[in-house]
Queue: 2 jobs
Job 1
Amino acid sequence: MIRPVLTEIILFLAPFAAYAIFLLATRAELFERASWPPKVVAALAIAAAILVFGAFVFLTQFSAAPPGSVYKPAHIENGKFVPGEIK
């Protein structure tokens, strides 16, 4: 569960990090309010939302079990834990 959450957080922060790297490369003041105008922050937030939405769609389409598969839940067999599996 932590991997998809971290993936979404990283994808959301990626445009802001790229802009911060751009500011560093152009030798602009990174922590000055003038370097982060509202229009730029809004554009970065929209780009981040598009990346997150695209990742949601990608993960739901390509990380699921194949059609027709059956889930066998976890159980205890002869005193040993047997993890769940998809067959």
Note: The chain has one domain: 2-86.
Job 2
Amino acid sequence: MNKRKLLKKLLGGSKNIRFGDLVALVEAFGFQLERVKGSHHIFEHPDVAVIVNLQSRKGKAIPYQVKQFLEIIEQQNLQLGDEE
């Protein structure tokens, strides 16, 4: 899915988001997968002190973690990277 469309969908409150799509969006904002411990995927950003913790539930993103991610990008004023 196009990352800008996905971001718009998330901002619109959609709770039906595939985990893989969310991971791609998190990475498009400059976060990198640092480690996986059990079901926890931990992402770090070189310019942000806060980590993003994501889990998959039956292939879908967990809604409260989506909300936390959106709050982080808003608080840190992060911009979506260029798409190719």
Note: The chain has a mean pLDDT of 93.
